[in-house]
Amino acid sequence: MTARGETRGRLLRTAAELFQRQGYHGTGLNQVLADSRAPKGSLYFHFPGGKEELAAEAVTLSGRELGEVFAGLMEAAPDARTALATVGEHFARSLEDSAFQKGCPVATVALEAAAESEPIRAACDAVYAAWQSVFATALRGWGVREERADSFADTVLSSLQGAVLLARIRRDVSVIHRTARDLGDLIDGRSPSPV
Amino acid sequence: MTARGETRGRLLRTAAELFQRQGYHGTGLNQVLADSRAPKGSLYFHFPGGKEELAAEAVTLSGRELGEVFAGLMEAAPDARTALATVGEHFARSLEDSAFQKGCPVATVALEAAAESEPIRAACDAVYAAWQSVFATALRGWGVREERADSFADTVLSSLQGAVLLARIRRDVSVIHRTARDLGDLIDGRSPSPV
DNA sequence: CCAAGAATAGACCGATTGGTCTAGAGAGGG
DNA sequence: CCCTCTCTAGACCAATCGGTCTATTCTTGG
Fold it and tell me: Per the domain annotation, does A107 fall within a domain?
């Protein structure tokens, strides 16, 4: 019937999706259970730590997947400007395709739960660290000075996170594209491109 | 005894503080009531719309106050670089003074509730629009080309929001300072300053 | 073929949630 | 003085919360 570990995976997927849309406290376990078509016993069998453990793993999962998307986009892009535009486009499409419900899969849970749950905070921290590393590696490949790559990658990560947040609230993705372009200007070290 | 409207104001203050620290769904009305030393009847008398109306007004309040702080800092700073450093310093101190519990008073509630409550979304939207306007005005005063000021102000707002988010998760404010410096570089239109 | 462990299934729990409702205290104008 | 309106006070409600527990159904190795 159900393959080993399938229920566990389905719970994780459902949880990741719901946490991304509704946040940590805004998502009830009963909803996760119903959407996963799993009984409560299975949840606490696979995640003895309860909601907290489920959230930490869900964030880790979506973070790893999105990180792999980033890495792929970085590899395919010829330069920083193009890469940032592509990443911005990815977030913009995710927002628009979900009626502005799905922004960053980490940010909401991070802000909500980081103060009260160390495991969740650590999971979010690890995801952001991995993303930053992807950006830093790519920037080095495009000739950014070694000692500046990490710092720049942080700025890229910050700006994108903020832009996705703003876009979600405004229900308008244009801020993402403009921010991505400004980041390109910054990394190229040239004066901002005229509009 | 209690002056007119005093209870209402106390409820708003308490709510703003708790929502900033714990988010919308993470904060129960009973806690707001207890911290405000107000009975439930008063809450629903002053805020017939319940929790939703309370949150919208609380976000508006803290947003306006922080916006005034921004305006003051902009006015006092001689140039964009200095101003951004000062704003970053303000957020950094808020985080450190609160054991990384108090980041942006809007972002958490915005991400949590924007999708499910239009009044709250609109309130957050208005706060961000006001902040953006403060930055844009200041940038124009520092010689940024008129048609670029609004767009730059958006990038500044995005980057700061993201940096404060990252700093809170990492429990390390350095990303705020570095992002503020990079923003200064961008606006000055010069190559990034060597480390 | 059967015993043992893995996993499912859901009833059940106390606590808490946001919200409603009735009663009465307090103050100000007539 | 007293009536009226504002506001306080908190009991009460159904619904939902995250979590525990026991019973049962699979699956698999011996």
Answer: yes
Least Cα distance to A25 among A108, A143, A94 occurs for A108
Asked, for residue B23, whether it belongs to a domain, the answer is: no
The CA distances from residue B116 to B51, B138, B166, in Å, are 13, 34, 25
Measured between alpha carbons, how far is A9 from A29 in angstroms, rounded to an integer? Answer: 15
CA distance A143 to A110: 32
Phi and psi, residue A130, nearest 5°: -65, -45
Query: Does pLDDT of B2 surpass 60?
Result: no
Residue of B nearest to A110 (CA): B169
Instruction: Return the structure tokens found at A115.
Output: 């103060």
Q: What is the DSSP letter of B44?
A: H
The answer to whether A2 CB is within 7 Å of strand D is yes
- Put simply, the answer to whether B178 touches A151 (Cβ < 8 Å) is yes
pLDDT in tens, B88-114: 999 999 999 999 999 999 999 999 999
Please tell me whether residue A162 adopts helix, strand or coil conformation. Answer: helix
- What pLDDT digit, counting tens, does each position of B51-77 carry? 999 999 999 999 999 999 999 999 999
> Within chain A, how many helices (H) and strands (E) appear?
9, 0
Range of the domain at B178: 52-188
Q: How many domains does chain A have?
A: 1
Count chain A–chain B contacts defined by CB atoms under 8 A: 162
